[in-house]
Amino acid sequence: MKTIIETERLLLREITLDDKEALFKLHSDPGVQEYTGEPVVESIEAIEKAILTRINNYEKYGYGRWATYLKNGMQFVGWAGLAYLPEFDEIDLGYRLLPEYWGLGIATEASRAILNYGFDTLKLKKIIAIALKENKASIRVMEKVGMKFYKFAPYEPGSEDALWYWCDKKLIAKNKSH
Ligand SMILES: CC(C)(COP(=O)(O)OP(=O)(O)OC[C@H]1O[C@@H](n2cnc3c(N)ncnc32)[C@H](O)[C@@H]1OP(=O)(O)O)[C@@H](O)C(=O)NCCC(=O)NCCS
């Protein structure tokens, strides 16, 4: 199992098929999916298919969404990471956590580390993040890590307008010095 990122409290590693039950618990929770614009996942088979896409994307792009653990007890808390969005030619920061781990600063801690990894290790030039306007927690995370709002636009054809944020290495560095 390949560990990608380690922070004070967290380990981020590549997702494997062994994560299917944990990911099913996450994506079948209506509270988790509520403001993501994605439907609740109904079957383990759908999760398996999604995991195979994730694994394929690690190979294709060299990054992806990563299983996220609390180091203390190696407790699975959800996923966080990057995804290439071919329809927009952008690289997107995203996160989903089990509700029992919300409000502990985990998404912020993971996101800061992911952005640093994206700019310093992967040498990416720009990373974006997209959230529905109702998703106050997600928007707050984007702002806390130093990303900047730049447009209201749909995140897929026909969807409602969402908030788009962006950052580059310079913008993140500015946030760190505050
Ligand atoms: C979005 C999500 C990842 C945030 O994770 P988290 O670990 O709880 O985030 P953090 O604790 O790092 O930060 C959350 C911030 O949002 C704030 N917040 C939470 N709910 C809020 C609300 N309803 N209104 C305003 N602010 C809110 C918190 O107070 C905190 O800000 P603060 O540190 O200034 O107090 C988590 O809620 C989640 O998994 N949600 C379901 C999936 C999802 O929507 N993913 C994002 C899709 S775009």
Could you give the topology of this structure?
Blueprint: E1 3-6, E2 10-14, H1 20-27, H2 30-33, H3 44-61, E3 65-70, E4 75-85, E5 90-97, H4 106-121, E6 127-131, H5 136-144, E7 148-154, E8 161-167, H6 169-176
Antiparallel strand pairs: 1-2, 2-3, 3-4, 4-5, 6-8, 7-8
Helix pairs in contact: 1-3
The structure holds coenzyme A (COA).
If you had to describe this structure to a student in words, what would you say it looks like?
By secondary structure, this protein is α+β, with helices and mostly antiparallel strands. It has a single domain, classed as Aminopeptidase, CATH 3.40.630.30. Helices cover 35% and strands 30% of the residues. It has helices at 20-27, 30-33, 44-61, 106-121, 136-144, 169-176, and strands spanning 3-6, 10-14, 65-70, 75-85, 90-97, 127-131, 148-154, 161-167. The strands form two sheets. Strands 1-2-3-4-5 form a five-stranded antiparallel β-sheet, sandwiched between helices. A three-stranded antiparallel β-sheet has the order 6-8-7. Helix 1 crosses helix 3. The longest helix is centred in the first third of the chain and has 18 residues, at 44-61. Coenzyme A binds next to strand 5, helix 4 and helix 5.
